[in-house]
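Record Penicillin-binding protein, 244 aa.
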Amino acid sequence: MMKKVLVVVVLLVAGYVVMDKFIMISYTRQGQSVFVPNVEKMSYNKALGALKSAGLTGKKSYNVRYLPDIDSNTVIVQRPVAGSEVKPGRTVYLVLNKREKPRFSIPDFYGRPLDEVRQILDRFDVAITGVQVQSVYDPAEDGKVLSQSVAPKTVVSSGSSISLIVGKAEVVETVQKIPVPDVLGMSLKQARTVIVENGFNTGNVSYEYSSLLVPYTVINQKPAVNALAEPGKVVDLTVVVDDE
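=>
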């Protein structure tokens, strides 16, 4: 009888130890939270150390545009932002500048709106050194590129330049147009709010995979930034995702 009692007591003590050391600790951690430290303008390795000290992890990503005056090892943006309350172990995306000047093949801009071309070239830091206006009789060619100084498929690097010839039709404006707001780099929710507040409507949302850019942010919009459009016009968005 005493032996059975002793076995029961041992099992109860063991159960208490398991509950106290493992189950209760796990339960308590579920309700914990930490605040994201400010790691912007830090070097990447220093930022990782600060996040580790706070119980968080960091993941490297790259800015949409190449910034010529920013060191490639410096954190320029963090997501979530500093001061956000998150669970321990949360991943913080650290946005760095691209290491090298990007190179890309010049597209064929014939027939594209000038504002759209500006947006494409601005993303790759290619300057438009001159825009020559040429009269056209077809209204469809108004504001569209007719010719370019750098031939399509020519490979150029960031900092290059190009000049354009754009059509101009003498058309009487019947509706006052307003500039389309810049929502690049915003979250989808924030972008939709800004678009509506500026008198436009949100349109189709397409998604593009990238392991380098900040997930769920806008990387392209149509009409382009500052393009003049009629109030109520639909603005389509492209959002980056990190899962294929």
